[in-house]
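Dear colleague,

As promised, here are the two records you asked about, laid out in our usual form so they can be pasted straight into your sheet.

NAME FIELD: protein one
SEQUENCE, THEN STRUCTURE:
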Amino acid sequence: MDVKEEIACHCESDGMLILIVVLALSLVAGILLALIGAYVVILAIVFFDLIMVKFLLDYSTRPLQFFGLLGLAGTGAGFVIGAFLVAQKLLFNIDVIAAHGPLLLLATVLFLSGIQFISMGLLGEISSRTYYESQNKPIYALREVKSHRKEDPAEARSSGSPER
């Protein structure tokens, strides 16, 4: 074999070896990323499940408080941004669409999504009350009933034990 042929053969085998090593490393990296990605997805699912349980425990009987707060914040922020843009237009005669186009879009989206959140809270409130009334279940459980009536001390002694 000539020296040139031996070098060419050696380079071809090294190229093949390098190709095999790169493919093996990419396969290992892909498997690791898939496993890490699977763990990230599982952690995200568990996190969102915990958020859902928290939501169901705290806001299942009062969805208007949850969605209403988000809606009020979104509508308020959209209104404030919109008022700023209207003031810019009226006071300084600025072309609002050209100068603040994305801000105008943000104000519109915030305002409309806030109204939708408030509507969602109202619908949730109606459906939860309908559910509890149809099942003849109380919406709220009372731990203790306290009376704010002032009783006559003579009445309390005659009954034996004072009511609270």
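NAME FIELD: protein two
SEQUENCE, THEN STRUCTURE:
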Amino acid sequence: MSVRDCGSARRPGRRTLIAYLDASAVVKRYVAEAGSDAVRDAMRRAEGWFMCRVGYVETVRAITQVAGALAAKRFQREWPAFGVIEVDQRLVEQAAALAVDHSLRSLDALHLAAALLLDSEDVLLATWDRRMHTAALDQGLKVLPARLS
């Protein structure tokens, strides 16, 4: 696995919260909508933010469609703060298995596989995609939001 570290400083004496965010979650940081406060709070509390490399494309596209190019530029300026999980053979093989086992779309399977590669029991996967949310719970991950309505 190849991960570009986000370089966050460790907070002594605190459990480490690692936030893995898919595009549906990151958009909420830049666009005021249901769930925005929860995402912003989780990102504030997290020691590190992570996303699969393909999430950059998804997120820029989604933010631009919903809020315009200026909002997308804010995300692009913050992108270096994200730990980036690169797409490699190990990731795509795990994603393929997850896609088949959980009926996930390809990009959602890549995101879930990337989150599962993070070596921490304190990973919080933020997604508002129902299938990915269910699959993440099935894989033993903590999720944000706790429940999708």
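A couple of things worth noting about protein two: Residues 54-67 form the longest helix (14 residues). The radius of gyration is 14 Å.

Best,
R.
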